[in-house]
Amino acid sequence: MTDLTDKTQAPHQGFWDDLRGGCFEQGYLQAGPVNTRFLRAGNSDLPPLILLHGTGGHAEAYTRNLIQHGAHFNTYAIDMVGHGYSSKPDTDYEIANYVEHLKDVIDALGFDKIYLSGESLGGWVAARFALTHPDRIERMVLNTTGGATCYPEVMARIKSLTTAAVENPTWDTVKARLEWLMADPATVTDDLIACRQAIYQQTEMPMAMRHILCLQEPDIRIPNNLTDAEWGAISQPTLVLWTSKDPTADVSVGQKIADMIPNSQFVVIPDCGHWPQFEDHIAFNEIHLNFLRGTN
């Protein structure tokens, strides 16, 4: 019998390995002007949880977490505006645009309050949403979050890898973009590459990606970042989750964010890069669910 707690076993090789343990669905909803794609697990009797991916990402960032969270939450992983298979309006996507889209998603689903978790760009959006709509969040997780740094070398790397993958979406360019996210490049599966390649081959994607990457320009990024006072004004119970090998920012950045948020916890998952929810899903799911359920 396979030991599902053994982290030394070979990584999953496909999305079906991640999702076959439970029921899930793909769907679309109209969130304001944005036709929004989602993956969902769980039922409507459970508290609602929304998962937000990072820059250039899509709902499949959470295939290794969806079923496990669906056992406890009515769980939605969405394609944010401009991303995945959601609508791609021809305008720059700053954090306020993502916040408005998230609010429209929550309203369209009929939720008063949600549990919210975001990775990278998704954490940045979640943090800003917590400030603009504090009454809509029960608990929040900021996973290797953006919104606190402006490192030219990191922004240049994101732009170069992402632009190459979108303008010439070959297997190798898409693979290189995904491998940059991981501490261990072998974590990138063929399914993940094929999924993102198909998304990046959409006709509208080069236009949308130029708008997505506006946040990698210092003159746009800095005004969108949260100030120290704004981090300190987040009132919801918050888990700041970091990794020991995040390519975007050192552990000290996560610790500083956690120190500024009054009602926060800080956890580091070792030997992971920018996607701990995918790279060490066993540790992530346990830590994440314990916090969201208030059982830690």
Q: How many strand segments?
A: 8
CATH-derived architecture of the domain at 15-149 and 227-293: 3-Layer(aba) Sandwich
Largest pleated sheet:
8 strands, mixed
* Low-pLDDT segments, ≥5 res: 1-10
The geometry reads as globular
Taking the alpha carbons of the first and last residues, their distance comes to 29 Å
User: Strand pairing plus helix content: what structural class?
Assistant: alpha/beta
Strand portion: 15-25%
Query: For the largest beta sheet, what order do the strands appear in spatially?
Result: 1-2-4-3-5-6-7-8
CATH-assigned homologous superfamily of the domain at 15-149 and 227-293: Alpha/Beta hydrolase fold, catalytic domain
Mean pLDDT: 95
The helix content, as a percent range, equals: 40-55%
**Secondary-structure element order, as H and E?**
HEEEHEHEHEHHHHHHEHEHH
If you compute it from the alpha carbons, what radius of gyration comes out, rounded to the nearest whole angstrom?
17 Å
What is the CATH T-level topology of the domain at 15-149 and 227-293?
Rossmann fold
Q: What is the CATH class designation of the domain at 15-149 and 227-293? A: Alpha Beta
Structural commentary:
With 296 residues, the protein is an alpha/beta fold. It contains 13 helices and eight strands. It has helices spanning 15-19, 66-70, 95-109, 121-132, 152-167, 171-179, 190-200, 205-212, 218-224, 228-232, 251-260, 276-279, 281-293; strands spanning 25-31, 34-41, 48-52, 74-78, 114-119, 137-143, 238-243, 264-269. Helix 3 (95-109) packs across helix 4 and helix 5 runs antiparallel to helix 8. The longest helix has 16 residues, at 152-167. The radius of gyration is 17 Å and the shape is globular. The protein starts with 14 loop residues before the first helix and ends with a helix.
